[in-house]
Amino acid sequence: VEARLSEEPFRTIYALGLASEARRQRDGAMRVDMPEVSVRVRDGDVTIRTIPPLRSRDLVQYAMILAGEAAARFGTTRGIPLPFATQEPPDYFDFDEGQSRSLSAMFAQRRTFRRSQYRSVPAPHSALGLSAYAQATSPMRRYLDLVVHQQLRAYLANKPLLTAEQILERVGAVEAILPSTRPAEQYSERHWIMVYLLRRPDWRGRGVLVDKRSHNCTIIIPELGLEPSIRLSADLPLDSDLTLSLRLVDLPRLDARFRVENSSG
């Protein structure tokens, strides 16, 4: 698709997506693009691949958000109870002019975000810049997306709908297990990144300084998807590039330590 964005139907879909993105940003949407990696294990071999920032991936994201906005609008105008995804506005954060897209600025902005919540009535989703939003594009992966599909299908078939109270029961059931399932996924991925590093004791790579708290600083390692803390002897500016080498890996604690070999502002 990346090579065919000038062809239909991708050209029109992408143009509509760009227009919707601009509209949402005017309404307060905030986009944070942090480095992402894909971790895969096959026959015991760990592969970590950096996910590139492709326009085709943006196209998918725009389309998914538009679908969720459309589902929420359809449900709201017809009085269909849905599990609406909501998010309160983040704490105020003032970017330096011209720096809002730097890695350190996006790292700081991400820390201000409030946790998303589900409700049985529409409410704003601040990060998306929408007055109502219902996740609907992953019914095989997210249960509440499936509930949205069930409600819309029942409405179109003129069958009984779940009540708002029944929607809340399902939201409660999902939120009761999310504190366990989300960390499990994160710990699994981090475990295999640690295994990857254990097998590469001579690893060297690039880090970016994104946060400074005295001498304890946070860096992002784009090729690993890690955000470790590190002590710096020099007072470097944010977004400095650091050449790092692996110092140790503590697999039980899922922790890796790095040393700085050199840096550039």
Which keywords apply here?
265 residues, alpha+beta, five-stranded antiparallel β-sheet, two-stranded antiparallel ribbon, 37% helix, 21% strand, globular
Write the layout of secondary structure elements.
Layout: H1 10-26, E1 37-42, E2 45-50, H2 55-77, E3 84-86, H3 103-112, E4 117-119, H4 143-156, H5 164-198, E5 204-213, E6 216-220, E7 229-231, E8 241-250, E9 255-264
Antiparallel strand pairs: 1-2, 3-4, 5-6, 5-8, 6-7, 8-9
Helix pairs in contact: 1-2
Written description of the protein model:
The protein has 265 residues and is α+β, with helices and mostly antiparallel strands. It is 37% helix and 21% strand. The chain has a 5-stranded antiparallel β-sheet with strand order 7-6-5-8-9. Strands 1-2 form a two-stranded antiparallel ribbon. Strand 1 and strand 2 form a beta hairpin. Helix 1 crosses helix 2. The longest helix has 35 residues. The chain is globular and about 65 Å long. The two termini are 36 Å apart.
Question: Brief overview, please?
Answer:
With 265 residues, the chain is α+β, with helices and mostly antiparallel strands. It has five helices and nine strands.
Using only C-alpha atoms, the radius of gyration works out to 22 Å
Biggest sheet character = 5 strands, antiparallel
* Quantity of strands, as a count: 9
How helical, in percent, are the residues? Answer: 25-40%
Largest sheet, order of strands side by side? 7-6-5-8-9
Number of helices: 5
Q: What proportion of the residues form beta strands (DSSP E)?
A: 15-25%
Helix/strand/pairing class, anyone? alpha+beta
Overall form: globular
* Span of the ends, CA to CA: 36 Å
Low-confidence segments: none
**What's the rounded overall pLDDT mean?**
92
The helix-strand sequence is: HEEHEHEHHEEEEE
